[in-house]
Write a structure and sequence with these properties.
Order of helices and strands: HEHHEHEEEHEEEEE
CATH topology: Rossmann fold
CATH superfamily: Class I glutamine amidotransferase (GATase) domain
Oligomer: single chain
Distance between the termini: 29 Å
CATH architecture: 3-Layer(aba) Sandwich
Largest sheet: 4 strands, mixed
Radius of gyration: 16 Å
Amino acid sequence: MQSIGIQDCKMILSSFSSQDESFVNEADIILLAGGDVERGWKVFSEVGLNELVIKRYYEGSLLIGVSAGAVQLGLFGLVESETSFNELIETFKLVPFIIGAHEEKEEWRSLRKTIQLLEGTIKGIGIPTGGGLVYYEDRSIEAIRFPLYEFSIRDGEIIYSLLMPNQAP
C-alpha cells in the first residue's frame, strides 16, 4: 500500500485489539490478504472482524481481496482436508459468486468442486495468477490484466467462458 502512496497502514492481528478495531472503523481501504481461507475466516468470525468488514463495506470502504482474501469476498469457501473436500464455509457474501484464485494449473479443481456441490445454482469466477476482478456497485464485473474464467453448469456439465479485460482504444 505504501508503494502507491498510502502511508497510514496497519496489519490487523488475530488478537484484534481495541486499537485495531478503531483503525478498521476509520479505514477507507481494507485489504484482505492471502493464506488459508478457512483459518482466516475462523479468526474473522471469532473476533467479530467479519461483521465489522461488512459494516465498513456498506459505509463506503473499498475492499481488496488477495488470494484467500478474494475467495472470502465471495459466497462460500471450500474446505479441503486430507480425507475429503466437500465442506463449504460461508464467507462475506459481498460478491455474488464463488471465487477461485490462482488455481489455473489445477484446472480450477476447487472452484469446479464447489460449483458441483452447489448443483450449479451459483456461478464461479476464477481469477488467474496476476489477474484481478473489480466488482462494481451496479453488480457488473471487470477483468484486470488477464481474462477471468466464468464457470457454470449447463445440461449437467461444467462449462466456462472467458471474460476478457477491457481493451482501451
